[in-house]
Amino acid sequence: MIDYDESGSPTVRVGDPGPRPVHLLFSEPTRPYDDDPTLDFLVKARGQWVSAETLVRTWDGDGLYSFLSSLAEDFRGWEGARTWHSLEYDLTISAEHQSGGHVHLTWGIHDRPPFEEWHFETTTVHAAGEEMGNLAAEVHTFLTSVTT
């Protein structure tokens, strides 16, 4: 779900909030360098037993929107896992189409190089088709909210 923080910057929440489930929050999209396609954003995993976050560095989003859109377009399913990763592998996604028309997204957030001391994974489940399309659209809005 897309929302906006106090400064008017978009945030995207993936997964259900609450005491037990883990949800992800994408926030603070910034372009750290003038006239450069580098796009950074913060990803936080929150739940009753977890609180983890990392700064994700991408090269203009690294095709995240295209990846999520392709999952929505293939709502009838696919074999095996499809994967995506950010520029420095600080955010990874593995997508599997399961019976019943659901897409299981396994999100990995990883400690930034050079430390790489930890990583965390959680899985969110989304209805194939329209729900995946909505997630892709929200991520697109998020990634394009900061101009160079």
Walkthrough of the structure:
The strands form 2 sheets. The chain has a 5-stranded antiparallel sheet, covered by helices on one side. Helix 1 runs antiparallel to helix 2. The chain is built from 2 helices and 9 strands. The chain is an alpha+beta fold. The radius of gyration is 15 Å and the shape is globular. Strand 4 and strand 5 form a beta hairpin.
State the gist of this model.
This protein has helices at 64-73, 130-143; strands spanning 2-4, 10-14, 23-30, 38-47, 50-59, 81-85, 91-98, 102-110, 119-127. It is α+β, with helices and mostly antiparallel strands.
In N-to-C order, the SSE pattern is: EEEEEHEEEEH
Unreliable stretches, pLDDT < 50, 5 or more residues? none
- Distance N terminus to C terminus? 25 Å
**Form type:** globular
* DSSP, total strands: 9
Rg measurement, Å: 15 Å
Question: Which characteristics define this entry?
Answer:
16% helix; 5-stranded antiparallel sheet; 148 residues; 4-stranded antiparallel sheet; alpha+beta; 9 strands; 2 helices
Q: Which secondary structure elements does this structure contain, and how are they paired or packed?
A:
Elements: E1 2-4, E2 10-14, E3 23-30, E4 38-47, E5 50-59, H1 64-73, E6 81-85, E7 91-98, E8 102-110, E9 119-127, H2 130-143
Antiparallel strand pairs: 1-2, 2-3, 3-4, 4-5, 6-7, 7-8, 8-9
Helix pairs in contact: 1-2
